[in-house]
Amino acid sequence: MKKYLFTSESVGEGHPDKLCDQISDGVLDACLQDDPESRVACECFATTGMVLIGGEITTETYVDVQQIARDVAKDIGYTKAEYGLDCDSMAVLNTIHSQSPDISQGVSGTGLYKGQQGAGDQGLMFGFACSETKELMPAPVMLAHKILLKATELRKSGTIGCLRPDSKSQVTIEYEGFIPKRIDTVVVSHQHDENISYEELRDIIISQIIDPVLEEENFTHEGTSYFINPTGRFVTGGPHGDTGLTGRKIIVDTYGGMGRHGGGAFSGKDPSKVDRSAAYMARYIAKNVVASGACSRCEVQLAYAIGVPFPVSVMVDTFGTAVVEEKKIEKAITDIFDLSPAGIIKTLDLKKPIYRRTASYGHFGRDIFAWEKLDKVEAIKRAL
């Protein structure tokens, strides 16, 4: 039960990397809307006054990539050049081409495993869950997300009119063993208008954004250190202040560093890519295992080979918190869950245009997504 500090970060929907993630997933959603069998690997790059969209797409529908990019930027709030990007005047470059036929034959079941959908790539994916929050997520990353969600809500409603789209947060929690005890430090860097003083902005962010979130989540902020815009100024932001790139915030997207990560990014990839779909499945499994009472902390690793219609390995780590043998949990998982690429897609209903909503504030911990449901708890209890 040693004491230690653990830190996780989040970035807001206006962060340049998250702008790119949302454009990539916006393109994916547009493809799946009319053609659920679309194969999409869409990447985006953003810099001053420009968005570049590339990757591989094979679809039966027409997608207006340029309009999607403009609509995403507008929805985030990039409506003026002084914000770092203007949705109406920015250049949008499209360099998309079709998927390689060599990859397609393995995924479509026309390769070595005829008639069976294979994994879209090789790789390892992790899912994690723990009992320290109601979402069964690590507390530092959930709080970091919720702080920026609150800021976005108040910015878009006009309640706090001085905020601009770009933002980052960071939360440090003191733990005793696996139990979060107190908030040690909160960092928020938020882009703002030029005419507001540092002191006024600092007071607004602490009193209207941070403290209400901590109180709602039942965390004391007595003795907590606050670092608000630590440079003293954050007027220049967005893609003008820092370039953006799809898939660069993989730890923000998952567990804030508390759980391991296989390395594959999510955004812009259709569910035939196990980088995305198997990571969602691993989270689904881990969450149901923790909710069953088998352990209070669970990490699931799945691994795949390109074109192969089953995982090459399944591993469970409960960090010493299990009340049954881990091998029994692993057997229950393989008995209850269909871990084939096709089975994952069917179980989680992944051929729908649901992905842009995942691209900011974390892919996990929000019950609007199918992989967050707890419908296998009783089956796991019976199996154990």
Number of helices: 11
Q: Helix coverage percent of residues? A: 25-40%
CA gyration radius, whole angstroms: 21 Å
Oligomer: single chain
Strand content range: 15-25%
Structural class: alpha+beta
Shape: flat
Order of helices and strands: EHEEHEEEHEHEEHEHEHHEEHHH
* Terminal CA distance: 28 Å
The overall pLDDT, averaged over residues, is: 94
Main sheet?
Answer: 4 strands, mixed
* Overall strand count: 13
State the low-pLDDT regions, or none: none
Strand order of the largest sheet: 1-8-9-10
Structure explained in plain terms:
The chain is of the alpha+beta class and 384 residues long. The chain is 33% helix and 24% strand. The protein has 11 helices and 13 strands. It has helices at residues 16-34, 65-76, 101-107, 139-157, 198-216, 238-241, 250-253, 274-291, 326-336, 341-348, 377-383; strands spanning 3-11, 39-47, 50-58, 79-80, 85-86, 91-97, 123-130, 163-176, 179-192, 225-228, 244-245, 297-304, 313-317. The strands form 4 sheets. It has a 4-stranded mixed beta sheet with strand order 1-8-9-10. Helix 5 links the parallel strand 9 (179-192) and strand 10. Helix 1 packs across helix 2 (65-76) and helix 8 (274-291) crosses helix 10 (341-348). The longest helix has 19 residues, at 16-34. The radius of gyration is 21 Å and the shape is flat. The model has no long low-confidence stretch (mean pLDDT 94).
